[in-house]
Write a structure and sequence with these properties.
Helix content: 55-70%
Number of domains: 2
Number of helices: 16
Order of helices and strands: HHEHHEEHEEHEEHEHEHEHHHHEHEHH
Strand content: 15-25%
Radius of gyration: 31 Å
Length: 410
Amino acid sequence: MDLIMAWRNIWRNPRRSLLTMAAIAFATLLLVFMLSMQFGSYETMINTSVKIQTGHIQVQAAGYRDKRDIRRVVTDPDAVGNLIGHSTQVAGYTHRAEAFALISSRERTYGVIVVGVDPLREAAVSTLESMIHRGEYLAADDADRALVGKLLAKNLQVDVDDELVILGQGRDGSIAATAVRVKGIFNSGQDEFDRSVIHIPLKFFQETFSMRGGVHAVVAVSEALEYVPLIKTAVSDGLKQLPGKPDLVALDWKELLPGLIQAIKMDLVSGFIFYIILIIVVAFSILNTFLMAIFERTREFGVMMAIGTRPARLVKMILFESVGITLIGSAVGLLAGCLITWYFQVHGLLIPGAEEMARQFGLPARIYPKLSLLSLSIGTGIVLVITGITALYPALRVRRLKPVEALHAS
C-alpha cells in the first residue's frame, strides 16, 4: 500500500517530477560519459606512449633504470626474449640498446639519446614506422643509417641523406665515434621525444659502442593493458630460472613512465572536483524539489497524523517517493549515457581546436571513450548516494511535524 501511494504521489505533479528525473538523468548521463571519456583517453595515452617509447614491459639489468650506465646490460638477450615470447598475452618483443652521445651536423651539435633498434622486431612493438614524416624506415640490412625526430632535424638543420657525426663512450670505456646518414625523419607528436632521440640499427650500435652482443632492454608489448601484471609476474619468475641467475629485473610501464602516472592522477583529481561540483548543484535542485513537495502537503500530513498515521510511516512513504524518482532518473540517464558513449566509442570524438593539447599528451586528435563496469558503476553510484542523502532531510522534517501545527499550515 505504501509503495502504491508513493507511486501515485510521484505523479501528482508530473511536471515537477519529470524535471527532477531529468536533472538526475542528466547528471548520470554526464558522469557515465565523462568517466568513460577519461578512462578511454588514459588507455589511449598509455598505449600511444608505450608503443613509441618504453613498451608495456622491459627486462633490464638491475639498477639501469636509475643510473643509465651503459655497462649495465642484458648479456644474453636471446634467452630473455625466448622467455618473454612464451607468454600468449605478449603481442611482440624486441631488443634495444641506448647511450647518451653528442650528435653533430655541419651547423650544430646537440646531446641526444642514441637508441639501437632491431628494424624487423621493432615493428611488432612500436608504431614509429607509421610516423615517418620524410624518407624511409630502417631496413634489416641497414648499417650506418639513422632515424631522427622532426624537431631534432630542425634544430640540427638536416634533411634526408644528410650526414651526422655521433660521438660517445663505449661499454668498455673507449671512444665511440661514427658517421651516419639520415634515412628518415619521424614525427611522433611528443615534442620531448622528437627533439632528443635518434634511432640506428642495433647491430651497428653494438659495433660502435662495443656492446659485445649485449643490450640494455628487452622490450615487450602486451595484447591488452590488463594482461601486463600477469606478464610481469610470469617474466619475473622466469628470470630466476635462467642459467647463471643474471641480475635482471622486469619493469612495467608504470615504473618506466612515472610522469605519465602522475599526469593521469592529476587529471583524475581535477575531473572528480568537477564531478563533485556537478553533483552538489544537482543535489540542491533535488532538495529544493522535495522540500516544495513537503511544504505543499503539510496540511495533508497533518490530517493523516490526526487520523492515526504514524510519522515513521510518512517518512517511509516520502523515502519511497524519492527512491522512485531517483531510480527512474538514474535508469534513464544510465541508458542514455551507455548509448551516447557506445556511439562515440565506435566513431570517436573529434574536439575542434584541441589537437595541439592532445598532441602534447601523445593522444590522437580523435578520442574514443571506453565503456566499462567502473565508469558505469561510479557515475550511477555517486548519483544514487547523493540523491538518497539529499532526500533524507525533507523526510525527517515530516517526522518532526505536529498534527495541530500541520493542520493550520497555510
